[in-house]
Amino acid sequence: MKVSVIGGGPGGLYFALLAKKAWPRWEITVYERNRPDDTFGFGVVFSDQTLDAFKAYDPVTYERIRRRFAYWGDVDVVYKGQVMRSGGNGFCGCSRVALLNILQDRGRELGVHMRFQREVDGLEEFADSDLIVVADGINSKIREKYKEHFQPSLDLRPNKFTWLGSTRPLDAFKYFFRETPQGVLLAHCYQYEADRSTWVIEMDEATWRNFKFDQMGEQEMILTLEKIFSEELDGHPLIANRSLWRNFPNITNKTWVRGNAVLVGDAKATAHFSIGSGTKLAMEDAIALFEAFKKHPEAKKALTLYDTARREEVEKTQHAANVSLAWFEHMKRYWGMEPVQFAFGVMSRSKQITWENLELRDPRFIKEIHQWFAQKVKAQGFAIDLDNPPVPMFTPFRLRDLVIENRVVVSPMDQYSAVDGVPGDWHFVHLGSRAIGGAGLVYVEMTCPSPEARISPGDTGLWNEAQRDAFKRIVDFCHANSRAKLCMQLGHSGRKGSTQLGWERMDHPLESGNWPVVSASPIPYYDGVSQIPVELDRAGMEKVIKDFERSTRYADQAGFDMLELHMAHGYLLASFISPLTNHRTDSFGGSIENRMRFPLEVFRACRKAWPEKKPMSVRISATDWAPGGLTGEDLMALTRMLKEAGCDLIDCSTGQTVPHQKPVYGRMYQAPFSDWVRNEVGIATMTVGAVTTPDQVNTLLASGKADLVALARPHLANPHFTLQASAWYQHMGQYWPPQYLTGRDQAFRNAARERAEQTDLRLKARPASHEVQDGAVKKAA
Q1: Which of 86, 267, 440, 676 is deepest in the core (most CB within 10 A)?
Q2: For 277-417, where are the alpha helices, taking DSSP H only?
Q3: CA 583 to mean position of chain CA atoms
Q4: pLDDT digits (tens, 9 = 90+) for 286-318
């Protein structure tokens, strides 16, 4: 087999040597535009897990890398004069030049041919090759030439950054945060060989322009940065190597394969440097491509496998990198946080590292954030045992006069099981069992203030006394047999009403018996399928307001502790908020202030009818996940308006406004919006969406992304989610009904044993430490 590799970076070289080692008869040539020792940048970073993979695929390469790297297990967050250290992380730094030379030498030993200072302009130059590996980097000439086929997408991120080096030795990975009159800067720093460290300087564009870096030459830039970070550099200089200011390009491609040519490394996809993934991704691409050829010797089948099997892992890494880079793009958002919480936020920013990950790595670090969080809650007037504090999820939370026992919330979930709007035995058991299951707050499904406001015929309603009394039966049971508080969620379906049950054809019209629907504008949900809604006029608005007022009074009479208005998911109030569904030209359309006019009228009417001592929340769609939808500026404006109107909590959901939405899913995928609202608007928030474990709940709370965490599907599968979590964390303060106390005692014993066994297994399964001796750099002084 004849193989041509375009690009002599780590990805191309590693595939070449792995393939040549496995199939010596293959003719493999690497073509590189630069000289063998040319490189831009300084060091590269690998985790213990990545090093384990290198060891498995080619021990010779691994051993040579191992002898050249600087190893560290600690990460320091240096913020406002304090150093917060998290240990047990397991990373190494290695000179990029050294890595390239190791891979080049190993390739030559195995018989790989190398052609340096050789430009490649097109695939036609290798018409006689059986396989062409395109590894020509972030500015891939090949990808650009055939862009109509690969269909690349480029998202240029707003922050400015530059790569520099220094002679300053470092004993840990360092995040140096520096506040200046011009703005906040960050240096990402790590050792990569003796007396050499990488310094990636990052800041937002406003800070960059305030310093006038856009007007400076390289030498002036260096002198300016040395002055800013003089304390951190400790007398050492910064070193440049084509250190240009850049914006990070997020690159994806619709396909990675064109005939017998395949993209790897940065040519294929990029991932932000804040998770140290560029070189790692490229070399793991090489491994994946190699594995594809082991399974399918025929190039076409192997490349198809690579393009499908590898893509999921790459997209996961890119997603984590995107979440990580977004945190650094909004550093100023967290600048008011206390140091220990700020440090926890840095460590958990990508969602890959959580409370329990860090506890396993460094119990001392988690103990510090654990104590800090408990002290903050105690300072709010709650009785907290600081000698044995509860984890964040089991701390109380106050909204007005309402005290919620813990931070776990049963999210509102439509059951489509009401008859004439009346909740029945199903709702009694469903809500009662979740309350007994230990959640601090239980939401009722979206309940409608009139028959025509329902989503489906199976929706609950609150427009008459029979419905009120049925709800009161449920609320009274929950209050008598648990410590859960109950929240009534009121909402009007708008253009998404008169549709089939959730397990039928969701959001599709009833086959018969439809009722008229209304919305902000006469735009059907499914064009040509859904009813065309009537544009709500002033008389209609007044009726809706009166309906909501009536339901609010009934909710209070039924004994609910809290009230939420549903302004999300494309329902009536949401249809006014989103520009995708509000095309009005009157005073209720246009600017976000106008689009919020009617939703705020409804909120104020309900707030007036609802007892002052009881809190109110609002569920919003923080983004529509569709072009032309709600903007970030809209989100900030609407949540500030709600706060000024007396809203106590923003329930941050997303999407479901239009059927052509394209959400970016992933674990805790809606938490960034809760984080944004909470830390910029200064209002309590609840996050929801793909939160599945108590560990994630603690992570979200401790990092300041939310005050309450709602879980939907986990509570459908396990009504006793919170009780089980109390056993896992040995939190004896959690209320268990007396009928369940014998089960509690057993659960606590089993959980203690299971947790000890699981911790032991995790410790044994952790990647091996690759610390080195024999003259290699173990740790800097």
Answers
A1: 267
A2: 278-295, 299-329, 339-347, 355-361, 363-378
A3: 32
A4: 999 999 999 999 999 999 999 999 999 999 899
Please check the confidence at residue 349 and state whether its pLDDT lies above 80.
Answer: yes
DSSP-assigned letter for residue 74 = -
Question: How far, in Å, CA of 218 to CA of 210, rounded?
Answer: 17
Which structure tokens are listed for 632? 């970030």
**Can you tell me which residue has the tokens 């997209």?**
315
- In 3D space, the residue among 387, 427, 356 whose CA is nearest the CA of residue 694 turns out to be 356
**The pLDDT of residue 774 is above 50:** no
Output the 3-class SS for 568-617.
Answer: CCCCHHHHHHCCCCCCCCCCCCCCHHHHCHHHHHHHHHHHHHCCCCCCEE
Q: What pLDDT, on the 0 to 100 scale, is given for residue 767? A: 67
Residue 536: which of 484, 483, 601, 632 has the closest Cα? 601
306 tagged catalytic: no
Per-residue b or e along 494-517, where b marks 16 or more CB atoms closer than 10 Å to that residue's CB? bbbbbbbbeeeeebebbeeeeeeb
- CB-based burial, 639-659: b 16+ in 10 Å, e otherwise: bebbbebbbbbbbbbbbbbbe
Taking only the tens place, the pLDDT of each residue in 1-46 is 999 999 999 999 999 999 999 999 999 999 999 998 777 778 898 8
Angle subtended at Cα 178 by Cα 173 and Cα 184, rounded to the nearest 5 degrees: 115
In 10 A of CB 423, how many CB atoms? 24
Could you tell me if 378 and 384 are in contact, meaning their C-beta atoms sit under 8 angstroms apart? yes
Instruction: Given the residues 443, 571, 729, 735, select the one marked as catalytic.
Output: 571
CA dist list (Å): 620 to 450, 504, 519, 596, 669: 21, 26, 17, 12, 15
Q: What is the pLDDT of residue 92?
A: 85
**Residues 709-743 as b or e (16 or more Cβ within 10 Å = b):** bbbbebbeeebbbbbebbbbbebeebbbbeebeee
With 0-12 / 13-18 / 19 or more C-beta atoms within 10 angstroms meaning exposed / middle / buried, residue 755 is middle
Residue 476 pLDDT > 90: yes
Give the rounded percent of residues in the chain with a pLDDT score beyond 70. Answer: 98
Residues of the chain with pLDDT > 90: what percent? Answer: 90
142: enclosing H helix or E strand:
helix 141-145
Structure tokens at 21: 């080692």
Q: Is the pTM of this model over 0.85?
A: yes
Side-chain-side CA neighbours of 239 within 13 Å: the count stands at 14
pLDDT band at 72 (very low <50, low <70, confident <90, very high): confident
For residue 62, what is the enclosing H or E element? helix 59-66
The alpha carbon of residue 780 and the mean position of all alpha carbons in its chain are separated, in whole angstroms, by 33
Tell me, rounded to whole angstroms, the distance of Cα 343 from its chain centroid: 17
Cα–Cα distance between 57 and 286 in angstroms, integer? 11
**Alpha carbon distance 38, 50 (integer Å):** 25
Cα separation, 543 vs 561, whole angstroms:
26
404 in Cβ contact with 708 (< 8 Å): yes
Tokens linked to 264: 């790897």
Cα 323 from Cα 350, distance rounded (Å): 5
For the CA atoms of 564, 568, 574, 575, what is the dihedral angle to 10 degrees? Answer: -150
What is the C-alpha separation between 177 and 185, in angstroms, rounded?
6
Q: Identify the residue whose tokens are 């240029």.
A: 156
- Quick one: 210 exposed, middle or buried, by C-beta within 10 A (0-12, 13-18, 19+)? middle
CA 358 to the chain's CA centroid: 17
Angle, CA 452 vertex, CA 447 and CA 457 arms, to 5°: 65
